[in-house]
Design goal:
alpha+beta; Alpha-Beta Plaits; four-stranded antiparallel beta sheet; 4 strands; 49% strand; globular; Elongation factor 1-beta; Transl_elong_EF1B_B_arc; protein biosynthesis; Transl_elong_EF1B/ribsomal_bS6
């Protein structure tokens, strides 16, 4: 098996949530076999912004789903959506 790049959209609970703090917690929550390549901020509407996370991980088991669940448990995160998964 190879590696995949997974793109996740992380929505905060509101406009007053500190996205930099969530970004740091996402990087800390990443399992050993997941490499965070990029975390960007995407404007949504009315001042609300989302984090877009690009992570490289092995194409095996439920690594991506488990990572998304860990992010979902971070305080200040409303939802996590897997936008794309591409084979490297």
């Amino acid at each position: 098996m190879g590696n995949v790049v997974m793109k996740l959209k992380v929505m905060p609970t509101g406009v007053d949530v500190d996205l930099e703090a969530i970004k740091e917690k996402i990087q800390a929550a990443a399992p050993e076999n997941v490499e965070i390549r990029d975390v960007g901020i995407q404007p949504i509407a009315f001042g609300l912004k989302a984090l877009v996370v690009a992570a490289v991980m092995p194409d095996e088991g439920n690594v991506g789903d488990e990572f998304a669940e860990k992010i979902q448990q971070i305080e200040g995160v409303e939802s996590v959506e897997i936008e794309s998964v591409e084979l490297l």
